[in-house]
Amino acid sequence: MKLGSVRQTVKHEENPLGARRSDTRDRIRAVAMELFSEQGYEKTSLRQIAEKLDVTKAALYYHFRTKEDIVASLSDDMRRGIDDLVTWAESTPPGRARAEAILDRYGALLHSTGRDMVRFMHENQPAFRELGFGVSLRYQFRLIADLMTEPGHAPLEVFHARQALLAISWSTAMMGDLPLSDDECYRAAIAIAHDILG
What we know:
With 198 residues, the protein is an all-alpha fold. The protein is 73% helix and 0% strand. The chain folds into 2 domains: 8-66, Arc Repressor Mutant, subunit A, CATH 1.10.10; 68-197, Tetracycline Repressor, domain 2 (Orthogonal Bundle). Helix 4 (67-90) packs antiparallel against helix 5, helix 4 runs parallel beside helix 8 (134-147) and helix 8 (134-147) packs across helix 9. The longest helix is centred in the first third of the chain and has 24 residues, at 16-39.
């Protein structure tokens, strides 16, 4: 089953009960991502996620019916964030200031809601391909890079924009073995991305 057809809508309700529900979903997703990183997506079961959370499988099912649903919710969050970034960029005059602001906003998105999804993409590439997220995320990535350049952009400008975005993306996924905090990696990646943009 492709994840594109599995959609979990995260409800951010205003009442305290809704807040608790959202907190539980976030805990489930965090624990699932931790297990996916440690032992891989394929080798992780819902039972293991429930055990690590110290809840029953039925309680887990209330929020997510499958592992795919967990990853789909993370992908949806990331896509919504990128859609918001694109909407903002399209309403902003093109130029250097917009390109730099896109880098900063993209970095903030990946540093917050997108971090787990980027790590999942890197650490579970076969599952990521099988689940079918790549097409829409690649399209969004290319669209953002295009919005960082002037109208009628030269291919080399787009190349630099994509490389700047990749500096941010891969710092999220590939620097975990360094004795640096997430904040330190984030700040360094943003600075490097701005240097690449030139």
